[in-house]
Amino acid sequence: MQHQPSFSPIRCALALAVFLFAAASSAFADGPQATPSIFAPAASPAHEIYSLSLFVLAITGAIFVAVASLLVYAVVRFRGGKEARHEPPQIYGSMQVELAWTVIPIIIVLVLFLTTTRVIFAVQNGAEPESALDVVVIGHQFWWEFRYPKLGIVTANELHIPVSSKLEPQPTFLRLISADVDHSFWVPQLSGKTDLIPNHPNQMWIEPETPGLYLGQCAQFCGMEHAKMLIRVYVDTDQQFAAWVKEQQQPAADVAAAAAGRQVFETEACMNCHTIAGTAARGTVGPDLTHLMSRATIASGTVLNTPQNLHAWIQDPNNFKPGALMPAMQLTDQQLDQVVAYLTTLH
Ligand code: HEC
Ligand SMILES: [Cu+2]
Which CATH fold would you assign to the domain 256-343? Predict the structure, then answer.
């Protein structure tokens, strides 16, 4: 019987090259700040997770290289030519070989298991120091609510946390819950993914050491606009954070010139879904708008927060985010202008 080897070392090498190229280009696709890359950790526990992944990658990579080269060697060296008519001699019952391929994998799996468990426990049991900041993260279809219970702050989509240092550790402890379906909080440079599950609060913490903007993404398919449920984490210096907290704790601006827009807001059902602290608006279906203008983006990172974009959004949220759970409110052009003028006073 003639063997028809379908395995081609060249095809295999090609497939590997394509895979590596795809992996590398997706990892380095964007600019340095914008890259939500798992290869550039900037906080604990992202560092621990990164070292662990490198360790696992090194071991599994070594196994891959060893197995693949033996395979290629065997395929090339023992290729049965045209004349091959017989199976090669079969070897049974080698105690040494069987022991080797049982014991070595067990040791490898044990090492991987123990190192992984150690990191998981270190991350999970991270004790919360006095100086820690508490934030409650609530996943909504398709935006994020951030509550700072001790500071009395509620905001959306853009999380501000202080930078931490060895001398002055200031980790942020997040309590993750959901208002509707499963979501997943993932900012690759800061930590691993943690799901937000209805009726099952989860915990995670982050301790970033470099100020800056870190981008993330809901990592659990949660419905139509899941892909536009982005996360922006601002790691602030101590002064920046203190200034931000002070600003957020103010009641909403009350500008006389914007009274007409405020009236539109209070009579066109906006206030059934949105809160503006210091006014009658106490809805919780949509983001808190008390300090709307302190955010760089609207609609969970979908577009920049400009008057034009606010206008287009309120006219019809489907303009940017088809499937968003805010209805087009059918305002007249004049009402639209007035309500946008009002919203832009909310610093
Ligand atoms: C039925 C509830 C509902 C009503 C009524 C409603 N909204 Fe919204 N609104 C939402 C939801 C939900 C979002 C978040 C959408 C998303 O990002 O997916 C939102 C988002 C917004 C945003 C963006 C906020 C941010 O930080 O991303 C603005 C601004 C806004 N609404 C203004 C208004 C105005 C003005 C009105 C009245 C004309 C209004 N909304 C009426 C539910 C509502
Ligand atoms: Cu989601």
Answer: Immunoglobulin-like (2.60.40)
